[in-house]
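Researcher: Good morning. I'm working through a list of sequences from a screen, and I'd like to move beyond sequence-only analysis. For each chain I'm collecting a predicted structure so we can compare shapes side by side. This is the next one on the list. No need for commentary yet; just the structure.
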Amino acid sequence: MHNYSNSDYQLHLREQENKTIKQTLIVTGNGFDLQCGLKSSYYDFFSWCELNIKGFKDLKNAKNSTFNSQGLIQGAFENNPNLTVWDLYFMYKSTLTNNKWCDIEFEINESIQSGFWNSIISDINYFQENGNWSYPDEEWFFAWMMNDRYYSNNNWMYLNSGFPTGMIKTVQVSSDDFHSKLLLELNIFEKRFSNYMEDELKKNTDYHMNQSNLLNKLVQSTTNDDTYSILTFNYTPYSSEYKYINIHGDLKSLIFGISNNNNKNSLAHIFTKSHRRMEEELPILADFVSSKENTVVFYGVSFNNLDIDYYRMIIEQFGYDRLYFCYSDYGEINRKSEYENAVKKLVEQLSIGDFYSLREQGKIRIIKID
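Model: Good morning. C-alpha cells for this chain:
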C-alpha cells in the first residue's frame, strides 16, 4: 500500500493514465469478408447491377452496339434516378468495358486526377451558350446526362428559334458546382452498394460465425491475446462482443473515396476519404486506438495506394515492434509469393526499413491462415 501526498497522488494518476498498454490491433480488408463467404467483390456487385438495376444492362449494350448507342443511353437514363454518371464512366472508361470488374475507387481517382470532367464541363457550357453540342463524340454522353439531370432548361430551344442572345439568361456551370453534383451521383451509387451488401448479409446466415472463427484463427496464429481491437476497411458489422470501428463508414453511410496523397486537383478534396470522414463525423481513429504500442495484425487488406495514408498511420502511429501480415490461399491458387511481394512493396513505400532485414529481426512476420 503506497502512501501518497495529494500532489504525488495526482502525479501518480497522470502517470497511470499515460502508461502505455500493449495490445493487439487487427486490421481487416475485403479479403476477410470474402473468406467469410460474403460476395463482397466489385465483380459480384456489378454482376448484381446487371440483373437488378434498371438501365444498367442498356449501358452495356450501348457500349457494344454499332447502331443507336445514343438512343440506348438516353433511354437508360430517362426517368431513372438510380442510374448514375459513375455507371456510365465505369462502363465506358474503365476495365468494366471488358469484364464485370473494375476497382471503383481507383477509377474515381483516375477520372478526377486526369482532368476528364473538365472537358465535360466545357461541353455543357458550350451547349448552354450555343444551343447545340460542339461535337457528339463518346464523351458527349456524359455532358448530355449531367446537363439533363442538373442543368436542363429551354435555352437551346430559344437559341435555335432565333431569340436574341441578350434576352436569354444562359447558365455557366462552375467547376465547384459540377464536382458537388458528381459527389451527389456518387452518393446514389454508394447507397446502391450498401443495399447490395445488406442483401448479401441477409443471405449469408453463417457470416458472423465464420467471422468469429476467422478472428480466432488470426489471434491463435499471431499474438494469442484474449482481448483485441479491430480496425476494418470493410463496411460490414462485427458482432457486438468485439470492439471495432469501420474506417470508411458502415452500411448505413459508407464512403467510396480517394487519398489525400498525390492529389493534384484542388476540387477533389470533397472526394478524399479524410474529408468525407470529417463530414460524416466518423470517430477519430486515434481516439479509438487508445494504445500507441500495438502489435498489428493485417488480414485481407489489399495495400492499395488510395489507402496508403491509413496504412502509414496504423503502422507508424499505432504500431509497435512487430507486424503480422496474414493471408489465405483462394481455392487452388498459392498466394505466398504474390502476398510477400505486396508486403515488400508496402514496406518500401512507407520507408519503414529494409523488408528482408525486418523479417530476419522478426519485426515482420508473414503467416498463412488455413
